[in-house]
Amino acid sequence: MLLRTSYIVLTWLLSSASPAKMAMLNLTLPGQHPDPESVVHDVHRRVNDSMARRQMLETMDSEDASCVTGNPIDDCWKCDPDWANNRQLLADCAIGFGQYALGGKNGEIYIVTDSSDDDAVNPKPGTLRYAVIQEEPLWIVFPANMLIRLSQELIFNSYKTVDGRGANVHIVGGGCITLQYISNVIIHNIHIHDCHQSGETNVRSSPTHWGWRTLSDGDGISIFGSKDIWIDHCSLSHCKDGLIDAIMGSTAITISNNYFSHHNEVMLLGHSDQYLPDSGMQVTIAFNHFGENLVQRMPRCRRGYIHVVNNDFTQWEMYAIGGSGSPTINSQGNRYIAPSNPNAKEVTKRVDTDHSKWRDWNWRSEGDILVNGAFFVASGEGLEVKYEKAYSVEPKSAAYIDLITWHAGVLGVGGRDNNLGEWNTRAKFQGSEAARPPSSTSPLIVFSAALSCLSLPLYTDIFASGL
Fold this sequence. Notes:
Blueprint: H1 2-16, H2 19-24, H3 36-59, H4 72-78, E1 108-111, H5 128-132, E2 138-141, E3 146-150, E4 154-155, E5 160-163, E6 169-174, E7 177-180, E8 183-188, E9 191-196, E10 201-206, E11 209-213, E12 221-224, E13 227-232, E14 235-237, E15 244-247, E16 251-256, E17 259-261, E18 263-265, E19 267-269, E20 282-286, E21 289-290, E22 294-296, E23 300-302, E24 305-309, E25 312-313, E26 321-324, E27 328-332, E28 335-337, E29 348-350, H6 355-358, E30 363-366, E31 369-371, H7 401-405, E32 445-447, H8 457-464
Parallel strand pairs: 1-2, 2-5, 3-6, 4-7, 5-8, 6-9, 7-12, 8-13, 9-14, 12-15, 13-16, 14-17, 15-19, 16-20, 17-21, 18-22, 19-23, 20-24, 21-25, 23-26, 24-27, 25-28, 26-29, 27-30, 28-31
Antiparallel strand pairs: 1-32, 10-11
């Protein structure tokens, strides 16, 4: 409620202030880091440390080398052989601007036992919707494969982790995920696809509040006025609007290790050129694979500071990175593979803006590999001092991209081969009721993270298999 009130007051100030007063107005957002270059520096340090550790262990022919990927996020938790019983340690593994996202850390473990979503106002205990609206921190897990077909937007409350590790979990349907005026959310290892518009009905957002929702955009994940968000190892495709959109003063976001495919407008960061609070938006986009049948917006930025680091861009039809409203775009150690279309070789696109305006925007490419005629148009000459600190640790060469991004997307079910958002390899999800797992009628199961239930053999075997 405090975060919501802050944005209402800020919006009123922006609309009522004169241009002279606007120049003096501090647009710092809750969660905005005062020194973004130091965050960039820390990302490179962690990547370099992971790569150095991997190379050392390989030289020593150590058994420990099998768990070290060179990807600092994965190395943080996958090297723990008992990770399935130490799930909440994942919250310590984020990097970049979203590294302080706690999710449901120190909260109870909530096990989703019912894949149905029949009532958006009075969700049943045991369902995912019931879990994400609760007030207290929860670490939400799945004991088996599930296809959750949403009836309406899945509106989260703060301090939630949705942890799909060890299961094959698909979220599809109306909405899909909405993070609005909240903080501290982690979404990990989930398929999100075939999301369509929904709304014009009531939806519950907390145990004590439900209200009317207008027609949604049909985003895979919609981040609206929220902070401390981490989206990791998800596979996203085939949505009505964006796969991930972050707008209206959202900040402190990391989008990492995801696989994006089969979509037009992939990612939007910033509400509009005129929405000044988005100047405080800070987003890290790291270790993702932008794959088959993507057209544009990887991302499309309005205002803010966007760090794009060690991603693999293997396809686009129009452009990879675009923007307007003078965003800062810091591209480091990525691989950009241009399409065969001779008119689509440019990585960058300044949207509806004359050169006389964008030539001073801070867009930089450093350590990137440009393939098949790809080229990055930099701008902001003479402003290198802004990047001096960020570049003081050289980003790892994009020659390591295959290694760092090999397991982008949902883990444990095929890595890069599991990219199409299908429930199984025999039939497309859409329209196939046979693909839906049976809904459990078991009662809600909530465990304290400190209790010994996490050492139950059945629980451990289910979640430890396949990763």
